[in-house]
Specification:
The structure holds 2 protein chains of 2 kinds.
Chain A: H1 7-23, E1 28-29, H2 30-37, H3 41-52, E2 66-70, E3 73-78, H4 90-105, H5 112-126, E4 134-137, H6 142-153, E5 156-164, E6 169-183, E7 186-193, E8 198-203, E9 207-216, E10 241-246, H7 253-256, E11 261-263, E12 269-274, H8 278-286, E13 292-296, H9 298-316
Helix pairs in contact in A: 2-3, 4-5, 8-9
Chain B: H1 3-18, E1 23-24, H2 25-31, H3 42-62, E2 66-69, E3 79-82, H4 84-87, H5 96-107, H6 112-127, E4 140-143, H7 150-159, E5 162-167, E6 176-188, E7 191-198, E8 203-208, E9 212-219, H8 233-238, E10 248-254, H9 260-263, E11 268-272, E12 275-282, H10 285-294, E13 299-303, H11 305-322
Antiparallel strand pairs in B: 1-3, 2-3, 5-6, 5-9, 6-7, 7-8, 10-12, 10-13, 11-12
Helix pairs in contact in B: 5-6, 10-11
Classes of the chains: A alpha+beta, B alpha+beta.
Chain lengths: ~325, ~325
Amino acid sequence: MSTQRTPSADRLGRLLNLVPYLLARPGILISEAAADLGVTDKQLREDLELLWVCGLPGYGPGDLIDMAIDGDHVTISHDAGMDKPLRLNPDEALALVVALRMLAETPGIGTRDGIERALAKIENAAGDLADAPVAVRLPANQKKLAAIRAAVDSGHALRLTYYTSARDETTDRVVDPMRMLMVGGFNYLEAWCRRAEATRLFRIDRIDGFTELTEPSAPPVGAVPHDVSGGVFHPGPELPLVTLRVGRGGRWITEYYPVEQVLKDSPEWLVTMRVTDLGWAQRFLAGQGRDVTVIGPPELLDRIRAQAATALDQYAAPHALGADSGAGR
Amino acid sequence: MSRTRTERLVNLVICLLSTRRFLTAAQIAATVPGYEHDPSDPRDHEAFQRKFERDKAELRELGVPLETGTASIFDQEPGYRIAQREYALPDILLEPDEAAAVGIAARLWQHAGLAAAASSGLAKLRAAGVEVDPQATLGVEPVVTVDPSFGPLTSAARDRRAVTFKYRVPEVDEPSTRRLEPWGVVCWRGRWYVVGHDRDRAATRCFRLSRIVGDVRATGRPDAFEPPVGADLISHVARSSGPIARNGRAVVTVRPGRAAGLRRLAASVVPGPDGDRLTINFGDVDWLASRIAGYGPDVRADGPPELREAVIQHLKELIARHETPAVTA
């Protein structure tokens, strides 16, 4: 965050932590402690060697930190007054408190109770710092989410009725659930899709129906979860490139969708973006108002023009105004 | 930091923790290994002072609460000590489910700085004896990303310092400079906002963090303002996105098997001679008209008349806009 400390400063923090850590775990395996603390065995042994020559003024036997290293096990026998870890600093308190609030707010999470108790205890330990000026609200269709989560927890395969926005179709498919996640305000079910024979992320709000099957969920060994740290949609170079000219009122597109390039030479920006499907692009772009004009590819331009013309023809025909056209408010 | 320096700092912490009296720099130099120097040699003494200043800064940076005071009213020189009560993390006992929640919370951050802060915070909890199961899951994994201005804004809100930043709204070409008294940061539907008192507009304002350009600068003194008591930050952000009243009732005809996205919005679907007849409740006629226009000849708006007119108008404009082959800028 604001303070990116150097590795050596991290070492000092780690050393101050190490004595109480070991004190709480007499006889712990060095390799286990190292793994727990995120350092190598060698680093941990070097840390222990350094601590060995530190201690209380006087620095004689009885003053220095003392420990028994028995092969691969270590036990602190004198802590020189370093029996407690340093309290949380503001960044640590913020990172933990906000993450717990986030968890507690995450729709569909299992044990909200445990999270809230943990939050209260961490806030207590953080003292004045607990009052993190951060609020979280993650709304969702709780009922649907809870139902899908329960089905996922049961360990069974699911039959989904799913709306695919890219192709604008609703289809049925059988999936083997892997996990549920929440990214950028949306909930997802990650599952092995037997139809696509690939791992897929299904947006919960687009699951229009589901049935729990009796057979167990069995994602194949090769089913790899997505890396969603940079968002859900990563357009690859194989996807069609679309170019638009957008006026002020259409610039929001560059905030909502990953775009390849934006030229801001004039008030009308020239935007290039990759789309999963030209059909989607057509529906989406033809649905935009006067602030969005498609520049290319020519195929898309032709499609939009031709489809709009045919659509318009429907209203010229006399039968278009049906008897109940006035179906009003 | 060299090994000698790390060693010296560990000894300094142990020494200051063990003393109840304030120790002067000279007393510390005479006690803690690594500060040996000749006080009568000005150059040597100056080197010691610089070293000691750096060390104090390092400890404060780490969050070690270094107290300054004098041992008695006769002492001229300031002394130092560390109060155990201020230094030590308060005792914290977490039940297994609480510890699991904290462990999961610490993994949420995708932001490098916050992830580091969370894991060093977790390391302190481990040192306090908390056992964290790294395998624990909660059924739903939230993936939390934040904008770079998150850190500076939360710090400023915590310190109650005013901030200034450049803010770019897509519709406006040049970012404008804003001056804000930040009350707090809010996560709403997967996006981050800062809420506070806008000094230039003299009113409460929300700003989306993703629209902040460049650095956030804290200005003026801490405790410069008082956020309103019991302010519900989320309500300021959520105000503009309440539930939409769907008072309009549209009738549209859809080709069989097409426009799945529109069918999902329908209150009822009745098969008819020239396609399926959908009834859709809507709030904003222009919004629905654009959706319908996006579907081209697959969908025909039958009523009410203002919807029909809006679709026709939209389609006409769409054709006009794409009539002449656009020239790439």
